[in-house]
């Protein structure tokens, strides 16, 4: 089973790229984030094209903000929008935002997740992010072995996962509480499939549109696939589809893939294709074009 996750940063803008990408990469399960459309618009824009390719879908939309989807051609059972106890924002008692949808796909519960950004350290949205992650963790305790958490986590797991750790000092995505929240999933037995497969490689999944960050390969790894132990044991390949970040009108994120049981393209490497001339920068010499990724 080939599973992919991709923050498309507006599915309406990305349709001309999304459909050919599905044809080329042939994923069995796809998790999309930041669709930025309602459920009705998602169905109108993509329903027929997905059905023609054999995909069922579930979407949790929120109009022009957030929005997540699951596409599957290996089953889409027991669909759940959000998760038990998911907090809202700005009031925790508000209805959950369009940030999580899950279903059982060929025996694995796959979650498509768009974790809150956090915005600024110690801001209300930052505390919402931490509460959201803790509630998600609590909700999967009883099924962690058969779970995959896929999506934009808005957390850089370690200093090794950004082009320059010093550029992020004082910002979200790298604080100890955020990283501790990510580590809490590991305590349940979930594993970072990409880093487990490629522990020492330079791997990014997001590059800012500005300042030539993509061409210099000055990015960060915030799009993750965490898998329970029995699922992670099945991983034969894990890779970032950098090709999908190239060309005309790309998302600022690249898709992340894992192949379970078999790897149709072989163990293709961590980044496909690899950057041709990644910049080498001295610590502190490059400033972030803006605070942090969405």
From TrEMBL:
<comment type="similarity">
    <text>Belongs to the DNA repair enzymes AP/ExoA family.</text>
</comment>
<keyword id="KW-0460">Magnesium</keyword>
<keyword id="KW-0378">Hydrolase</keyword>
<dbReference type="InterPro" id="IPR036691">
    <property type="entry name" value="Endo/exonu/phosph_ase_sf"/>
</dbReference>
<dbReference type="InterPro" id="IPR005135">
    <property type="entry name" value="Endo/exonuclease/phosphatase"/>
</dbReference>
<keyword id="KW-0479">Metal-binding</keyword>
<feature type="domain" description="Endonuclease/exonuclease/phosphatase">
    <location>
        <begin position="4"/>
        <end position="253"/>
    </location>
</feature>
<dbReference type="InterPro" id="IPR037493">
    <property type="entry name" value="ExoIII-like"/>
</dbReference>
<feature type="region of interest" description="Disordered">
    <location>
        <begin position="261"/>
        <end position="294"/>
    </location>
</feature>
<dbReference type="InterPro" id="IPR004808">
    <property type="entry name" value="AP_endonuc_1"/>
</dbReference>
<dbReference type="Pfam" id="PF03372">
    <property type="entry name" value="Exo_endo_phos"/>
</dbReference>
<protein>
    <submittedName>
        <fullName>Exodeoxyribonuclease III</fullName>
    </submittedName>
</protein>
<dbReference type="InterPro" id="IPR020847">
    <property type="entry name" value="AP_endonuclease_F1_BS"/>
</dbReference>
